[in-house]
Write a structure and sequence with these properties.
By secondary structure, this protein is of the alpha/beta class. The protein has helices spanning 15-27, 50-64, 84-96, 109-122, 152-165, 179-194, 213-221, 235-245, 262-268, 270-273, 288-301, 307-326, 331-340, 389-392, and strands at 4-5, 34-39, 67-68, 71-72, 74-79, 102-105, 125-128, 145-147, 170-176, 198-205, 226-230, 254-257, 277-280, 352-353, 359-360, 363-368, 381-387. The chain is 41% helix and 18% strand. α12 (307-326) crosses α13.
Length: 404
Amino acid sequence: MPRCFARTGVALGFGLAAFVAAHASVQASDTGVKIGVLTDMSGPASDATGPGSVAAAQMAIEDFGGQALGKPIVLVSANHQNKPDIGATIARTWYDVDKVDLILDVPVSAVGLAVQAVSREKQRLLIVHGTGTADFTGKFCTPYSMQWAFNTVALATGTAREVVKRGGDSWFFLTADYAFGHALERDASKVILESGGKIIGAVRHPFATPDLSSFVVQAQASKAKIIGLAAGPPDNTNAIKLGGEFGVFQGGQQMAGLLVLITDVHALGLKAAQGLVLTTAFYWDMDEATRAWSKRFYAKVNHMPTMWQAGVYSSVKHYLEAVKTAGTDDAIKVAAAMRAKPVEDVFARHGTLRPDGLMVHDLLLVQVKTPEESKYPWDYYKVLTTIPGDQAFAAPDSACSLIK
């Protein structure tokens, strides 16, 4: 039995008792709108998603007024433990038994794709924030699933194109040796070469290898201007830490993170992460609106929001507004209303939900500040440029059956 955290309203419970109680309480009000946050509560993505994603969803519900279609909105949450079978099982139970209308978050692409298959079968809505594979809105696209915060193509190509423009025209890749890492390296390499840069080399390391020292030394010895980190946590943060210890930045090289979150930078500290260049969909300190919302979020979870957590808030608000417009929680009608309205909020700038399910919006190229440049807690990024959504995200994939 998967470990779940759920009940009517929002609370975190543990074990079988909470799972059974959640079923009973949700069934008692199964004519209203119900939203489920399916996330990583205890693994490597828990800081970047987890309880913070639940808090973001609750904030959106509260800001909407707490009711939809004349009934209180119910929020449940569960831990998929980064296992596709557990994620699919929880999703099936939520859709079938608990009558959940929308599942959110779902970090880790393997889990996201497994839940997407259930969403397609049950014809219920799914919006992912931590699932990055571009295949989600490509060959696996469905009318019921949406990718809200990012995909691997946008992060890899956005970072690579902008860094090459700024003179970072020679690259060496530190690549995690699995599908996600390979996709990041492939997508970034394509853009680097198209932009007039060159690839000096690459080294591939096992996922979650305990010691990346020899790999970082190889990248440093390459003399490439940019060391591209084609990996997610924990490999990306380990490489950044070692880069600081080995004097990579002091030697004039930069690291470009193809997937780095602000919680990763916080865990590393500015001394280790300074100089890192990365692309993000959200930065808490961008303007007055992002600061005000982020401070509310901080009061709930004691850290500033990641782009995934801010994206959860955005998608829940947009979904609830669409429910109100459509006058129903019917999946297809709500999805149509979501696509008909631009997404312009604390998270998204110039956002549009495409027919393939990808929410296209502006991204930010940022550089991590030095300790001396940082003036207050979580003052971590210098915004180098805004990348318009139509440049950051690729054109719709012809493999998607929804693209005509």
